[in-house]
Every structure is written in C-alpha cells, then in structure tokens.
Amino acid sequence: MPHYTPLIATIVIGLVLAFIFGVIAHRLRISPLVGYLLAGVAAGPFTPGFVADQNLANELAEIGVILLMFGVGLHFSLKDLLSVKAIAVPGAIVQITVATLLGMALGWAVGWPLAGGFVFGLALSVASTVVLLRALQERRMIDTQRGRIAVGWLIVEDLAMVLALVLLPALAEILTGGTASGSGVAAQSGFGLVGILAITVGKVAAFVALMLIVGRRVIPWVLHYIAHTGSRELFRLAVLVIALGVAFGAASLFGVSFALGAFFAGMILSESPLSQRAAEETLPLRDAFAVLFFVSVGMLFDPSIVFREPLLLIATLAIILIGKSIAAFLIVRAFGHPTSTALTISASLAQIGEFSFILAALGADLGLLNATARDLILAGAILSIVLNPLMFALAKRLFQRSDEGKAAAAPSPAAASAAAKPEPPRKVDADEGLTPTELSSHSIVVGYGRVGRIVTEGLKEKGLPYLVIENGAERSQEVRADGIELIRGNAVEDDVLAAANPRGARHLLVAVPDAFEAGQIVAKARAINPDIEIIARGRTDAEVAHLIDHGANLAIMGEREIALGMLASVATTERAVEDVEDIEVEAPKPDIVDVESDASLPQSA
After folding, report:
1. Winning range, highest mean pLDDT, from 64-73, 173-182, 585-594
2. d(CA 121, CA 24)
3. Of 194, 215, 307, 310, which has the most beta carbons under 10 Å away?
C-alpha cells in the first residue's frame, strides 16, 4: 500500500504550513488568517517547493464552508432571518448592482468585452461567507442586530449567485451569439432564458418548502432519537450527516449551493434543545476545514500580478474596499439604521471570496473572462481578505469620530454620580459591544455554566458586587435574564478582560473547564492586578499545577472535592452507627479515615 496520496499530502502539509505561518502571524500581532493565506501561497503552483492538489484543496475547503454555515444556522432562527428581510433583500440587490456596474466600467476602460466586464463586476460584488462569519464571530456580533443584518445580506447574495451560476451559460450564449464555450444551454433546453430563471427560482422555493415542512419535523426527531441512545459517537456522526447530507442533497437535487443547504439545515435544527450541543460537536472540524479554505484561496494567488498590473489591481481593490463599502453604508443609512450598523455592514462586505472564485472559473471556461481579469479577481480576493481586519478598525475609528459615537462615549448623569452611591447590576444590550463596567471592589466570574451559576448565586446571597464574563450566546441571554451585569466575549481577549476592570476587582473566579484557556486568563489578570485573589478550577493534578504556576491563589479540582465529599458522608454515617453501638455494647471503634489530611486518597476518584 503506498504511503503517499495527494489527499493526505494536501491535508497534512496544508495544516502544517497553516500552523507555522499562523503562529508567525500571531507573534507579529496580525490576524492568523494572513498566515493561513500565506501558507496557501507557499503550497501553490506559483512558488517553488511542494505544490498541493488545488482541486482537492477546494473540495476540502467546501466542507469547511458547509460546517461553518451549518453552525451559523444553529444560532440564526427563521424569525431572525425574516426580521431583517426589509433591509437585507433590497440592500444586497442594490449593492450587487452597484459593484457589478463599477466592475463593468473598469472593464470598459481597459477594453474588455461587455460580457467579460459583467462577469468581472459580478465576481467583485459578493462577499466571502467564511471571512464575514469569522470576522463577526471574532467581534461577538453574530447575535446582534448588526450581525443578523450582515448574515441576512450574505444569504441574499448567495441566492443571487446561485441564480447567476445557473443563468451565466445562457447569458454567455446570448452575449457571444452562441460562440461561447459550453453555450447553447438555453436553446438546447427549449425553455429560453426566462424559462431557466423560472425553473431555478422554483427549485430554490421547493427546497425551502421541503425544509420548512418536512425537515422541520424529521431533522430534530432524528437528532433526539440518537441523543437518547446515549452514544456520543453516534450523536456526533448524526450532526455531521445532517449538515453534509442536507448540503449535498440541496446542491444535487435543487441546484442550491452547499452553503445555503447547510445554513437551512442548521436553522431548522436551531429549534431543537440539542442545538447547542450540536454546535459544540461540529466546532473542531469546522475550524480545521475553515483553515483549509484559506489555504486553498492562497494557492490560487499569483504574486506576479502585483508587478504586472499594479494599476488595475489598485482599481480592483478600490471597487471591493471602497465602492462596495460606500454603497452598503448609504443603503443601510437610507433605511434608517444607525451609523454603527452601517459601518459594520460596510466593513463586513469589503472583501470577496469563494463565490468569486467559482464565477471566475466559470467565466474563464465560457470564454467570457481573460487570464488578466481572472488573476485580478483572485488577487483582489487575497488582498481584500488580508485587509478586511483593517476595514473593521477603520469602521470603529469612524464611528468614534461620528456624532453617534461621541454621544455613546459621553458619560451619562447617572454614571457621574456612580461613585457616590452603589448601583444595582445593569443589563448590557447585546448590540452595545463592549461596555466597560463601573464596578469596583467586585468579583469577576468567568463562565456561566453550572459552576459559574452556583458561584453567582452565592455572591448574590452575600450581597457582594459582581459581574459575569460569558462568550456563549444562549448563556449570555441567561445572564441578562437573571439581571446580572454581563461582559460578552472571551476573557482571554485583552479588551474583554479589561472591560471587567480587573485592576479594581477583589476576586477573579474562573469557572471555565478548559485549563489552557483558564491559565491564560489567570496570567493576564495577575499581570494587571498583582493583588487580586484568583480562584480557578481544574480537572487533574497537572491542570491544578498549571493554574497555580500561572498565578492562581487557589485551584480546585472538582473530582477531588467530590471524592472528599463522598468520604466525608461515609465518615459521618460511620460515626452515627458507632454512637448507637456505644449505647448498647462496648466495642472497639473502627478506624475512620481523615479525609482532610490523608494525601494517599486516589486523585482521580
């Protein structure tokens, strides 16, 4: 049996290079996404050394898109999607139109045919699913109104691209007079352009209807049945089968993209109480294949385009980063949404990705796009993905300078008198972003699971001031529902931890079960406040030692405390029995184990 296959080589070397370049990027304090893209360039055909199989990389990346959209669907209900249709549908259509016209204008300026300019502009109009969702997740915006509008906008763009991919061969036939490669579809089918459009819309409508009528009943029932078997392996497999199976079926039977099929599967499953567990089961695979997506994008990039056509590349980036952003901003503002929402949508859409690659490949196959236009699309995708974090930073800076941002930053009269009298814990709206706490001499509870909930109940009973840092969407809603001040995000991130005011806090109670993550939180809090009392939880002796080494005053191992509690209960029962026996008959007392001092007790009980 051979020990080398293109599939294994693509996965292994792609992930290894992504890890190396990702660590370097993180060390340089830039987004690891840049490292993943550079890993793809290193593994691509335009650089010396190993060349990965591009087709295999693209297919592996598609799995990442499926799992990512499935995860988004799990947190995005049908109600949320319908709630933003008034802005997402017209906004996406107008923005696609503007970007396409800008691309056609650039093509006309350099002498490209009308059909080539149309495909070029269309490819620049659609944002990357993976990049947009990763950006929103990193900034904790998925569950905000801004995030829902951005995702809804993205869904409309994807639907438009599904129609474009089906209609493009017919359009190529019309625009080229039947001379395009692969043309003749409309004539051979006998339906014409209008007929093909009607059939495509009908297929999409049939898929949506099937998911809402049949899938809404079958998918949750299957998952509940598997959950009751008690097998974690079967449950994980069931989640993957639902995500991948529905996506594949949607593409094969209805002509809908993999991403849209997976999104609807997740959205249907979101109505089940098992949705949170399903999201957790798909997370590791989702992250791994998302990395492969960026590697596959990097493999397409020919760095020589930067030197061959610098002016055209700058113009292409201007359309993606400036033209689309301005159009989106004006559209959102025209619908009466605040500046913060308009800037978020603008930054989210200031990049292109997977649909752009598909359109570029199809346009080249149909003879509509020349090699230069295709390379400009790929280069524009790479560079816009790299620059997208800067667009978010620019959007944040513009918001701070706007009248709305200045008003939000100005202290309220209530805040001015906060030092004079204590305030009850206030609720923080999910769309506010990070709002620094006004508490001092308080306790910071990281995590609102079973442990964190018990800790907050005890702090509340004692009348001590406290707040909670929580990253999960559902648990964050529970924190707000309980009237507790919430800092939404991952406490590992510097801005999230700083918003909880660890410098002025008395206690930090780290209730998250991940010792690696908890160790980072402990170390950062200790660096900010050397005097803060830090208590964390571990599951093994090694984790306890790890937490202590990173600065925790006390690390509690749950299994040991359970064992000590059990033995204490046994000891209490034995003493009670001895007391009764002492009354009736004098007998030697049995030895009682001192659970508080016996270091020989098993640590893994």
Report:
1. 64-73
2. 35
3. 215
